[in-house]
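TL;DR need structure tokens for one chain.
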Amino acid sequence: SWSIEENSITYRLLVILRPPPGHSFSLDTTEQPPAGRSGIRVALKCLCSREQLLGKTPCFLHPSGQDHRLDLLDTLCTRSYLDVEHVTCWVQMLVASAWQLLPHSLHCQLTVLPSHRSCRFQLTGSSGMQSSIEMALAVQE
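>> reply
TL;DR here they are.
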């Protein structure tokens, strides 16, 4: 959705997160997640049959030789649960890094706004026009 207020436009986006290959998301209703964290459990899943069919697709659950595991569990989770604050911070860093590579970055400044539960950004053009972007993150079961 979007809204206009005087000299500002606000865009609100819903971003669906999908687990990377070799991982799965599930809603855990059996255990109490760590305090302040989501009930979204992140688990490793076997890709051995996919590795045999496609080749070069490492199985994170049954690594052979080199350990190609992503640091997803360490970076975005507390214990085995998706940590909303960690994910929000990670997405904000990715967007800020990608913004610097775009031609628009020469004429428009991106500011990451503080937020713990969603990603918030402000764009300020050379004319002073401001746009706000709010990204709500969700997972699909």
